[in-house]
Amino acid sequence: MSLYSEIDLPHKVGAHIDWQESWVLIFRDRKSGCVGFLRTGAYPNQGITQTHWGMALPDGTRFRSHLLDRKMEPNDRTETSASSGTMKFSIPNMEYVRFEAHHKDAEADLRLYDFYSSQQWEMIGASQSHDGGGGEAHGHPESAGRVEGRVRIGDRVIDIENGIGYREHGFGPRVIGQKPEELFRSARAHFGTVGPELSYSVITMHDARGGFHKMGYVMCDGVRKKIKDLHTINYTLGDGFSVVGGMTIVKLENDELIRINVETVDGVVTSTHLNNGGIGSSSAGIEALSIPTWNGLDGICDFNMIDNAHRGQLPVSHLLRANAEDGLSQRATDMEWVMKESGLTRLI
């Protein structure tokens, strides 16, 4: 019996002009240390597709390429696949999830074999609906699994035999405010896995009106655990943006605590409609591709952060350990001494 179902496939497009659908894969190859973030999606009623793509190696070599305003083509959405020109998502024969991506500076062809069927967030505590579904179909099915395949960064080709990955899939209206007072203030989206023993997705969001919401899920050995409360703590550098690690502490319904420690390999700057934030797009956020640890196990997570307490719309700049450059680049800032002194020794 397949782990996959209609919830994982492209959905009927809603009527809202900002209705969107997207698929994300984060991955890590423990052997080479390569990490990556791949997102393909579309705003069908706006006639555009989107690619967000970033990968990095421990030595600082990294790649980033966003293509956010490509005109949709007739075959971009099928019953079992979605393409944004430079990236494609599919579920071949309902057996595994596949992400394919190509660029002159990089390539990826990855297969994710899930640990469990897709899970959706539950609202925690006094949180209210957070995504403005407006009565239209919307959701966020997610899962984690083992990764196989091949990636290329520049001239380096990496064959992945036993990697680890996490996927997410969002569909429904995604409205971006056009004025500062319409933009949400902050968000923490920490999703990842250390293997079949623990996978999770936990989110906190401080909205434009001042409300604070929490949502998510936790899977332990294939069993879903109910969350009572949670908090995420990010460590950031002096640019106010580059995440280098942190932790999330989850309190389960039985008051058991799960503490997930995080050390970030590299960060990929993302925004919805523009390359680096700005008017008409969401505030720039960071996909902090990271190594989570729990009970002696390690894996892959996105320690995503958007800090916008004053609801500004300017691009981020003077970044220390986050990538806002297109194509191949080399991280210039020497962080070894900082990591060593801070205790974040895994990344040295």
List the helices and strands and how they pair.
Blueprint lengths: L18 E10 L6 E9 L4 E9 L4 E11 L9 E3 L3 E4 L6 E7 L2 E9 L7 E3 L17 E12 L2 E18 L12 E10 L2 E9 L5 E9 L2 E3 L1 E10 L6 E10 L4 E14 L14 E10 L2 E2 L1 E8 L19 E4 L5 H7 L6
Antiparallel strand pairs: 1-2, 1-11, 2-3, 3-4, 4-22, 5-6, 6-7, 7-8, 8-10, 9-14, 10-11, 12-13, 12-21, 13-14, 14-15, 16-17, 17-18, 18-19, 19-20, 19-21
Key words describing this protein structure:
2% helix, 348 residues, globular, DUF7064, 11-stranded antiparallel beta sheet, 1 helix, mainly beta, DUF7065
Describe the model:
- Residues 127-146 are annotated as: Disordered.
- The protein has 348 residues and is an all-beta fold.
- It has one helix at 336-342; strands spanning 19-28, 35-43, 48-56, 61-71, 81-83, 87-90, 97-103, 106-114, 122-124, 142-153, 156-173, 186-195, 198-206, 212-220, 223-225, 227-236, 243-252, 257-270, 285-294, 297-298, 300-307, 327-330.
- It has an 11-stranded antiparallel beta sheet with strand order 5-6-7-8-10-11-1-2-3-4-22, with no helix packed on it.
- A hairpin with a 4-residue loop joins strand 2 and strand 3 (48-56).
- It is globular.
- The gross shape turns out to be globular
Q: Rg from C-alpha positions?
A: 19 Å
Number of helical segments?
1
Number of strands: 22
Rounded to the nearest angstrom, the distance between the terminal CA atoms is: 43 Å
Strand order of the largest sheet: 5-6-7-8-10-11-1-2-3-4-22
Biggest sheet: strands, sense, closure? Answer: 11 strands, antiparallel
Mean pLDDT, to the nearest integer, reads 91
Helix content: under 10%
Instruction: Give the ordered list of helices and strands.
Output: EEEEEEEEEEEEEEEEEEEEEEH
What class, by secondary structure content?
mainly beta
Q: What amount of the residues lies in strands?
A: over 45%
Poorly predicted tracts of residues: 129-134
